[in-house]
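Input sequence (132 aa), recorded before submission:
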Amino acid sequence: MTKELDKIKELQSQVTKARAELRTLKSVAGLTPAKNYTHKEIEQIKAVPLPFNLEKAKKLGKKLNRSHRSIISKVKDLGIRYEAVPRVYNALPHVNKTALVNDILKSIGMRQGKKDYFTRTALLELHKRLVE
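Predicted structure, C-alpha cell format:
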C-alpha cells in the first residue's frame, strides 16, 4: 500500500514540474495571455461621463476592440456606477386556463366559474355552444 502511495506522490510531483516547465516555455514563446486592461484603457473607461450605460459600453468597446460585456464587467469591477437597461421579454403573456375558459364563457353568455375546475355539465354545455 505504501508503494502505491509513494508512486502516486512521485507522479503528482512530476505533473507539477511538467506544468511549471510548460508555463515557462509558453512565456518564452510569447503565448501567455495578454493582460486584461492596460492603465491607458482603464483611464479611458474612467474618462467616460457618468452614468455608464449599454450605449457607452458599446461605443467604448469598439474603440478598445473589446466586447461591450467585457467593458461593462470592468466598469463594475472598478466600482463605477453602471445603469443597466431593463430587459424586454418578447414571450407571450402567461395564459391562465381558468381565465381563458371564463373569457370564452363570458363571450357566449354563459355563467362564469370561480374555481380552477369546471363541472362536466358546464364543460358539455360549453362544448355544445362552441360546436354549434
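Checked by second reader. The helical segments are 2-29, 39-47, 54-64, 68-77, 97-107, 120-131.
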